[in-house]
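To: structure desk
From: M.T.
Subject: fold request, one chain
Message: Could you run this one when you get a chance? Sequence is below, nothing fancy, just the single chain.
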Amino acid sequence: MGGCTVPEERVPSDSDALVLADGYELGGYNPVNGHGEAGESKIYDGLLRLVGGDGMPTFEPALAADMPTVGDDGLLVTVKIREDVRFTDGTGLDAYDVAATYDAILDPRSASPLLSSLDMIDAVTAVDPSTVQFRLEYPYAAWPTKMLLGIAPAERLSGGRAEESTLNTAPVGTGPYKLISSRPDQAVYEANEDYWDGAPQVKKLTMIYAPDDNARAQRMAAGELDGTNVPPLLANTFRNKPGYQVRVNASADWRGVTLPADNPVTADPAMRMALNLAVDRQGMVDHILGGYGRPASTPIPEVYGAAYEPTATFPHDPARAAALLDEAGWMRGSDGIRAKSGVRAEFTIMYFPEDTLRRDLAQAFASDAERLGVRVDVEAVDRSTFPNQLPSKAGMLGGGDLPFDPDPQVYSTLHSRFAVPGAGSPYDNASDYANPAVDRALDDARRVLDPQARAADYRTAQTAYVADPGYVMLVFLDHTYIERGNVWTGSTPVLEPHSHGVNWGPWWNLRVWTRR
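Reply: Done. Structure tokens follow.
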């Protein structure tokens, strides 16, 4: 299979090159099509970039010369652009490139998957070559998260569909690396020696696509790789191997089960509540995550500080769950499976076949449900057909694509505006959950700038959600990686999003690494 191809050129781990294997597909390097939305791209820079450390990361200027200035009403954001920055094709960066990149996302013809996430933008204007202004529809406290997006040259933005742009295969950015060759199973990057922030010391980076978790671990053990991402239990097999390090980064990446509103079993409020009470979240953390994670009852983890509501959790209470179903008329049959009004308590949960962690979580969820008298069939479904089946089948999903503020962490997962067909991605609010109290709190929180008021709104949203859940949230993951023979220093921890391939992990800030 393509993912097991040996790299064309193997480089020793003590050279100025790295070979990493990723479980995520390569390609699609167009920022208008979603590449590097969270600031992880090696090819592009955003106006801002992340500063790592324990807890929530902060932001610092990247292509912006200084931190943006925000008008008193919160509606006008002005950004000065850094001078003397050049794209890897030799052209200079200016405010017109910034405006063109955001305008391309906002243009419906591009069919950008980021369109709905930028609906707070009214207009983007290049005032002059060094100044760009964003006029917002409403004050948006999480605006810095929208400035991590990579900037592309205006002349490379054709105006057509983002997924068909040449940037997907021949990217041109201002970032620390440039892509020099690419195929479905391998991408090779070279340091940008003219990088505005100083040329990286790691001069070559080869990324290999290897979707099978076990295959990546085997290749790591064979010495073919300098690093990879693997599930926690596989990572633990390297814990005592000489020359290897297991690296762990905290994340706001959740795993949870969708409960389709069109399915007669999962649409029942009593069933939704009972399933939330029946699952053993701590057991999943201990036995499936190997302790690398935390139980999740809502999409908002404790790392959000005052915005986290500690009482908004579901206890593991199978007895109460059974009583709720009894009261709601879901009675056990002779085979132990419940039924109500002729409807058998049975549904299917899907997972991606190459993702062993989702498989194991789905099976654990099914076992807990079976003890409650609910039959859950576990089915491996290819990613290409998975979204079309979400209206009728449950899915083992993940979320937290942009976790550096509570708004992008939770809004598209729980707000009912994404329960409308065609609104956002098929994975947005995949349960078609609708709760007016949650909607109001989330809308208020994204429009108010006072931190204390925002935090109170998010606590209200969590309290309303656990009284009427729309998913069975299970766990927040710690992301686990393996390194071999690392002779470099400079890596720092950072709160990671859902997308946790080798663009993240120890390598997220590769541009600043120096030799020990």
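Reply (cont.): The chain has a mean pLDDT of 94. Let me know if you need anything else for the meeting.
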